[in-house]
Amino acid sequence: MVNISLFSQLLSYFPREKFDRLVKKHGSDKHSKGINSWTHFVSMLFCHIGGAGSVRDISQGLRSTTGNINHLGIGRVPCKSSLSYINRHRSYELFRDFYYKMLEELWQRHTFARNGLKQLKRNIYLLDATVIPLCLEIFDWATYRSSKGAVKMHTLLDYDGCLPVFTAITQGSVHEINVARKLTFPVGSVLVMDRGYVDYKWLWVLDSSRCFFVTRAKTNMAYQIMEDNTGKSGGNAFILADQLITLTAPQARRDYPEKLRLVVYLDSRSGQEYTFITNNLHWKAQTVADIYKERWHIEVFFKQIKQNLKIKSFVGTSENAVRYSYGPPLSLFCY
Fold it and tell me: Lower CB count within 10 Å: N or C terminus of the chain?
């Protein structure tokens, strides 16, 4: 009787044929010298599931797994020096593309039901970034502050299923809006983000692309009220204001020349007032507040991966090794 480990059963959910096609596309097995890309993927996946703290732990942990390693699809267990070299020199793009292939397959096999916002028949995306602190003396490329290092994980979450449809790992000093400007969205989709993404020129690009956005207004936003619709909120005591406004600051007016909608909402639990802006002039004011409330799902996502997966400490110090550490844990969320 041959023992098949739980880890090997987990690996059976990852489509090997699609992985091999990506390996051929990227040419990542060229000059592999026995440690092919699948062996590398299995090793890094074991790093997260087994809670390995170093390449030595990965190598020794794989050797101690119950059952024949052939059931893992690998010929031999890589040594620590080989893993360290591969993490530094082999491109991380293979793992990134494999995640997107798995995500595409998951969307074809499953249909996710919304917990909220069922009245909206549109694609809803949640955009945010989280900072992961690093030691600047060890990760000298991860610039953030003058004496601090960090990487920033930029994530676009699909509200249906709450799975990332886009992730990017950058230095901590890269501002969120610089990554957001490179993204494109389907026509008619709804983008929800915090006020760190308020760049009126980019918001005008979204509006021109026929996409809707909901975000919080900056506290120093200068505007003029063009129309007050607060009385049309149906007696909702939590809607303190519902107004159509135009920006009055010269640069902001040039960047966003059309009307915006401003909604001031009172949170019944905390008693705090929130000021939202959106380019949708027809939703109910309560719907605008409800949409922004669902942004909390991406904060929960960040909390889950930080608590359950190994993305705050790494088995390599190079930028490529850090990027490699994000492919396997994100793939785990697909299954």
Answer: N
